[in-house]
Design a protein that fits this description.
By secondary structure, this protein is mostly helical. It has one domain (about 10-65). Helix content is about 70%, strand content about 0%. The chain is built from three helices and no strands. The chain has helices spanning about 10-20, 25-50, 60-65. Helix 1 crosses helix 2. The protein is elongated and about 60 Å long.
Length: about 70
Amino acid sequence: MLAIKIDAATEKRLAEAARRLGEAPDALAARALESYLEDVEDYASAVEAWNALDPADLTSLADMKRELGLDG
């Protein structure tokens, strides 16, 4: 179990959001943290893929249009 400290304004916002959604504040905070961590992991995966990209594997839009016979 993790205990965190948040400022009063954030705690108030969390309580209000939880009330509107009919959830307990701790459950909403746990869901929000899970969503944030998924975003961080997705971003890290995207950066890793970008860094592994070989520019030689790229095709320009003009070349792709030409290859598909769409260059008019």
